Amino acid sequence: MALVIDLKPGEKILIGEAVITNDAQRTRLHIAGDSPILREKDILHEEEADTPCKKIYFLIQCMYLARDPQTYHKRYFDMVREVQKASPSSSFFFMQINEHIIEDTYYKALKLAKQLIEHERELVDHAKKANL
Predict the structure, then answer these.
(1) 57: which of 4, 75, 83, 118 lies 20 to 30 Å off by Cα?
(2) What is the DSSP string of 107-128?
(3) Per residue in 90-126, pLDDT tens?
(4) How many CB atoms lie within 10 A of CB 64?
């Protein structure tokens, strides 16, 4: 079954190692195969990874796009340990994310990492309010 993606005018999508930019009108793509696919809105550039959980998202993204994802595993698991020490409540997310990483289902891990980033934002907002 093919993945169906609707692209807005000018929207970019990464398929495998190719970046595809849509023209001036909406487009619907039907994509079959196992290449990694990321919409522009889901891509996090390294310089934008300015929090620990965003850095974790970036590493998972690298795994998803890499020919040899295991090259990122050590950095990822080291960072996970650091974040879990600082935020034990994140363990719930990491249990699920790690399962997907071990199973090589990196896109599912990325989706959960988005939730982790939101959890991190909520913790920071709560801490800021508590310090007022």
Answers:
(1) 4
(2) HHHHHHHHHHHHHHHHHHHHHH
(3) 999 999 999 999 999 999 999 999 999 999 999 999 9
(4) 20
